[in-house]
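Researcher: Structure prediction, please.
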Amino acid sequence: MSKIITFYILDTSSILSGKQISIKDVKLITTTSVLNELKPGGKDYRKLSYLLENELSVLEPKKSSIEKIVEISKVTGDENRLSKTDIDIVALAIDLKKNSDYNVIILTDDYSIQNISNYLKISFCNISQKPITKRFKWIFKCRGCGKKFSKNIKVCPICGSSIKNIVSKSKKIE
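Model: Predicted structure follows.
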C-alpha cells in the first residue's frame, strides 16, 4: 500500500500573508506565475526565497488543465475574477489530483480560487481571512434596465448603462 503524499499549492496570498507555512510531512509547490507576482526586495520576497531554498518546488500546469479551468470559470461566472496566476494554481491542482496517492490542498485567501476549487471538489485552506461558506454562480446585470447577461459585456446593448456582476445562485458549502 502506497503512502498518501500531501501537496500544498501556494497562491500568492499565502506568501503575502506573512503566516508561517508548515513544511513538515508535506510538499510545497507553486507556479512561475506566483513567482512573477513577487518582486525582488522586501520581506515577502525574502519569505519566497526562504521557501524556495527549503522544499518549495515550482511546477507548471498542463495546457489542457488551464483550458479546462477557463471553460469552468465561464460556467461559474468567475472568468473575469480569476487572474492568470489564479487559473494556473487551480489547473496545477487538477493535474496533481489525477494521482490517487496525492492529497492536494490549495493555500489561498482568494475567494474566486476557493469558489472554483469547491466547484471542482479540490480542497483549499484559508490563511488569514475567513474561507467562503457558499459557492456562487455569477452573472451580469445592467445597472439601468436590469437585463441579465451570461457573458460579461461593458455596456448594455439595450439602454447603454454599465454592467455589474451579481450572484445568480449560491449553494452552502458542506
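Model: The chain has a mean pLDDT of 87.
Researcher: Thanks, that helps.
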